[in-house]
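PROTOCOL LOG
Step 1. Enter all chains and additional molecules of the complex.
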Amino acid sequence: MIGVIAFYLFSFVLLLSAFFVITSRNPVYSVLFLILAFFNAAGLFVLLGAEFIAMILVIVYVGAVAVLFLFVVMMLDVNFSDLRKGAMQYVPFGLLMGGGLLAELVLLYRAWPVPHVPEPADVAMAVDNTRALGAVLYTDYVFPFQVSGLILLVAMIGAIVLTLRVRSSVLRQKVGDQVARKSGDVMKIEKVLKGAGVDHA
Amino acid sequence: MEWVNKMTALNWVTISPLMPEIFTAVAGLLLLLVGALRGKSSVPFILSAVLVTFFVASCFLFFGYSDVRPLDTMGGMVVVDGFSKWMRLIIFDGLIVSTLLLVTWLKDSQMYKFEIPILYLLSGVGMLFMVSANNFLALYVSLELSSLSLYVLAAINRDRLDSTEAGLKYFILGALSSGLLLFGISLIYGFTGSLSFAEVGGILSQMEMPAGAMVGMAFVLAGLIFKISGVPFHMWTPDVYQGAPTPVTALFAIVPKVAAFGLIIRLLTGPFLSLHEQAAQILIFVSVASMVVGAYAGLAQENFKRLMAYSSISNMGYALLGLLSGQPEGVAAVILYLMVYMVMVAGVFAVLMGLKRQGHAIENISDFAGLGKSSPLMAYSLVALLFSMSGIPPLAGFFAKLFIFQAAVAGGFFTVAVIGVLASVVASYYYLRVIKVMLFDEPIGEFDHDCSYSRKVVMVGAVAFIIIFTFVPNYLLDQAQLAASSLFQ
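Step 2. Run joint prediction.
Step 3. Record the structure below.
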């Protein structure tokens, strides 16, 4: 019973916040509603018994992606109402395309002979899925896992090599240079004669 | 516990068939560390270390595991057989050649970025895994590894508009094609319940008209045809070829297509074997369209790199011809074709990169005028290479095309083969035009003296290959047949 209530609550808030994501005028509100939508989707995953995906959703989408969106929205001063201007003229075309695709999907669904779906094995229920994922990640799936690591490394190299600019005009602390400085390079002892002062030339 | 036993299963026996790749990847990581610590001054060291790595790894491959029987490892994710061994050797050769072309360019263009050779290496690792993939998951991750490195390389000259445009265009369209590929894979998984090539093949062969899996196959093939720039998905090729820095264009033209082609061959002879009739329909369309579009669109090109793009489109069309019959002879012809094409393209780019006027690289065909007088060696090498590409008899390119057409005719695809021959006649116009401009047009200005030995090695090596191949074609032909037959056991 409580599960059913929780499901409807999460789904309702999810749909509502998803609706506000696309309707709110202020883009910052949109991103905040997006975060709310992610949290509720995570709640739905917990109800399904997929707690790992729920955690990933919160950590990756809320923790990284949504915050990144927020930064972009706040730092780039994009006027969204300008972007929306003229969007209405595409509505008939969009409806046409969407309607066509929907009709195709319905036709496909009606003509589709129901494939035989095997029941999930009992083992799947006995082990919680974080543990199950951990057991296969470094064994059965070690190859795609490691290659994915390489892909992420390439992404990092790419981001750095395409964006990092070393500017010499920026004043920054160079610890190495500071340590390597010798007193002789910057200091000298001069004998000051009376009445003559020091020649700075 | 069960997983403890599995962990111990990851031992020397399971990883030793993949020694060359693992060695290459680990060397790449170490070199990345060196580059990050030493900065710009380490570029020459890293470049030569990458070359040595490729060479040593290909020696591992050549002298190492020699059994041609298929052996799957890493939990069935990858398979090592005669086909993957030979394809990996070709890829290693391509990587070595493209890295050689990089050597002087880094100095000439003041691009002291140690990441460039490392990205070459990492994309190479992806391509090596691609031809050994035995699972849709392995297929996808290895394809992404190689593509992602290539997107970065296309945009590496980030201060130039055309390079950035090339990178962005390639990235966005590549992401789209990855989406198509993944959608197809998900359909196949949904209909067969497996991602393993062998299991998918077994299940599909028992099904009668597996409609969903067929749609999935169409999407997967579309994703891969994008990578080899087959015609409905070729739009990115000319722009990326033109915009990317020339050695990177050479890399694009030389290696990734071989790897993507290896993947297509593996899919058509493995999981999609029982759907060959349906696959052949797609391939016929792509092949004919590529040959025709590549031939006609190439006629109007003024930029040599763009011309090479259209030439590669039409050449991929010819290579696809060999796959129509689904016989080992056809696959062997394709392997041979890819090999010969790779060598010819490498030679052409070696010449192109050596052409300069007052320190500026030239790219337009009209700028080739007078090359015959000022540097006959380069001019006549280019003549030989372009003759070979257009399929003029005594050279390697002719034999490669001949075997392809033979395979297509043997499979009963007469019309397609005739269209291919006609398209190749049209295409030979643009190759001959370059030769005409180079040898007979009035010289305009002086060419700089090219003093790069690595480029000369590639150029002379390519010319030697296409000439020597005519006299002793048997070794490569036998190896290609051996590689192809290991797929049909």
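Step 4. Note key features.
The interface with chain B takes residues 112, 115, 118, 134-136, 138-144, 147-148, 150-151, 153-155, 157-158, 160-162 of chain A (CB under 8 Å).
The two ends of chain A are 91 Å apart (CA to CA).
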